[in-house]
Amino acid sequence: MSVAIVWFRRDLRLRDNPALQAAIEAGHTVLPVYIHAPEEEGAWAPGAASNAWLHRSLQQLDADLRRTGSSLVLRRGDSMAQLQALIAQSGAEAVYWNRKYEPATQPRDAAIKRGLREQGLHVESHNGYLLFEPWELATLQGGPYKVFTPFWRNALSHWRLPALSAAPSVLVSPKVDSLALNDLGLQPQLGWDAGFWAHWQPGESGAQEALEVFIDGALNGYREQRDLPDRVGTSRLSPHLHFGEIAPWHIAHALESQRSAGRDADIDGFLRQLGWREFSWHLLHHFPQTSDANLNPGFDGFAWAPVQPGLLEAWQHGRTGIPIIDAGMRELWATGTMHNRVRMLVGSFLCKHLRMHWREGARWFWDTLVDADLANNSMGWQWVAGTGADAAPYFRVFNPVTQAQKFDPQARYITRWVPELAALPLKSRFAPWLSPTLLAQAAPLYPTQPLVDLAEGRAAALDAYHRRR
C-alpha cells in the first residue's frame, strides 16, 4: 500500500480533518508528521504561551494517534528538507496538509508544493481552518472587504457547512525516526505557565469538552453576558480554534443543532464571533502588511509617544494603578488569556491614555496569550487603536473606571485579580486613588496614583489625533 505523509500544522485533531480524511480515502497508509520550524514564521514566530500550549497539544495528538495504532513523528528544522528526508525514509508517494494563511507561510507552502510535485509526488492542500477561504468572499466591485457587516452578510448568503467526519479508529503507519517532544524546546524554562493548566485542557478532547460546557452553560444568555468579565459568559474555545483542535464548522454544526425559539439570538451572536475570526483572516490575506503597519495610512504620521520602558512594564505586569486594567493584565499573566471586554480596555489605555504604538501591545499579547493568532491579534489591536478596518474611531477613548463600573459593577473581577483591594469599600475599588487614606491602610503596596491622569491622557490623545499629518 502506498504511503502518504499527512503534515500536521495548525490542525491538531483527528476528526473533521480534511487533509487526513483525503489521504485515508485515497487508500494511503498515513504517516502523521509535525515539523517544528518557527524560523519560517517570519517576524511572528510563536510566543512563549503559544509554545507552552503547543507542547501539550502535540502530546495529546500523539496519544490520540497511539490509540489508533499510529504515532506522531516529530521533526525540527527546514520544512522542505525534513519532508524530503521523511519521503526518503518512508517511500511516501504523496503529501497532504491543511492550509495556513499567514503572510510568511503561504509562499513557503506554495514553494514546497511546487517542488514536491516537480519530483513526481502527489500533493494536496485543504482548508481545515476556516469556514471560508480568505479570498473566497468579495465586494460587488470584486475587492476585499474593510467593513465587517457587509462581509458577514455575504458570508451568511453563502453559508454551507462542510460535512462532519469521524476520527479514524485504526491507522497503521510506517516506522521512521522521530524526535522526542521535549527536543522541540517548547516549554518555558522557568515554568511561568504552571498556573495555566488549572484553566485549560489543550488537545482535541479538551476542545470537545469546552464546546459541551459552553452549550450547556454560557451559551444561554451569551449575547448579554459575554461582556461581563466577572463570570464565565464566553465559550473559551479560542485557543482550541487557534491550534485547530476543533474545526469551526464542527462548532457551527453543534450550535445549529441547539436552535430553539429561546436560543436563536445567543447562537447567532456566537456565530457572529466566528464571523469576526473569518473577517480577520480575510483582512490579513488581502492586507498582509497589517501585522506591523497601519491599515489606515492616515495614522502613519501619528505622534505616538516614545516608549518609556518603566510605563510599558507597569502596564504589562498590572501595576498601572487602575484596577480594571491591572486585573486584566494579571489575569493574562496567570492564565494565558484575558476577557475580551477587558482586552479592549487595556488596549485603549495603552494606545490612547499612554499613547504608545499598538505594536507594543500586539507584541506583548503575542507572547503571553495562549490563543495568540496573527490575524485576530493584528485586527484587534488596530481596531482598538483606530488604525484598522472597521475600527473604533481613535477619538473614542474608553474610560476604564466607568467601564469597570458598568461591566464589573460588584468589582468581583477586580477583586479576584487584584485581591489587595478587597478590603476597600466597593466604590473605592474602581478608582482607589480617590480614597488615599483607605488605600494606604488596605493596600499600602498598590500604586497611589494611576500612571497617567485619565482626563489628561485623554486630552493628550485627542490633541495628537487632531494634529495628525
UniProtKB/TrEMBL annotation:
Binding site for FAD: Y222, T234, S235, R236, L237, S238, F270, D371, A372, D373
GO molecular-function terms, A-Z: deoxyribodipyrimidine photo-lyase activity; DNA binding; FAD binding
Cofactor field: FAD; (6R)-5,10-methylene-5,6,7,8-tetrahydrofolate
Flavoprotein is among the record's keywords: yes
Domain Photolyase/cryptochrome alpha/beta residues, every copy: 2-131
Keyword hit for Lyase: yes
SUPFAM superfamilies on file: Cryptochrome/photolyase FAD-binding domain, Cryptochrome/photolyase, N-terminal domain
Co-factor: note: Binds 1 FAD per subunit.
InterPro entries with a match to the protein in the record: Crypto/Photolyase_FAD-like_sf (IPR036134), Crypto/Photolyase_N_sf (IPR036155), Cryptochr/Photolyase_FAD-bd (IPR005101), Cryptochrome/DNA_photolyase_1 (IPR002081), DNA_photolyase_1_CS_C (IPR018394), DNA_photolyase_N (IPR006050), Rossmann-like_a/b/a_fold (IPR014729)
Gene3D superfamilies, A to Z: 1.25.40.80, DNA Cyclobutane Dipyrimidine Photolyase, subunit A, domain 3, HUPs
Record keywords, A-Z: Chromophore, FAD, Flavoprotein, Lyase
GO biological process: nucleobase-containing compound metabolic process; response to light stimulus; response to stress
UniProt site positions, description: Electron transfer via tryptophanyl radical: W304, W358, W381
Family note: Belongs to the DNA photolyase family.
Protein name, entry field: Deoxyribodipyrimidine photolyase
